[in-house]
Amino acid sequence: xxxxxxxxxxxxxxxxxxxxxxxxxxxxxxxxxxxxxxxxxxxxxxxxxxxxxxxxxxxxxxxxxxxxxxx
Length: 71
Hints:
The chain is mainly beta. The protein is 0% helix and 62% strand. A hairpin with a 2-residue loop joins strand 2 and strand 3.
C-alpha cells in the first residue's frame, strides 16, 4: 500500500472541526502535536498552521468541517 505523506502546513480562514472515525494519528496545530484516535474531536482556529504528521495506526478516516463567516 502507498504511504501517506505528512501535510502540516494547511491554513484556512475560519474554525475547523475534526472527528476521527478510525485509526490513530498525530495532528499538528501550531506548535502543538495531539495524538488523535477513533472517537476524538478537535475544534480550532484554522488560520494556524495545521495538519496530519503521519499515520500511527491505519486505516485512518476523519470528518473535517471548516466554518467561515460570510460578510
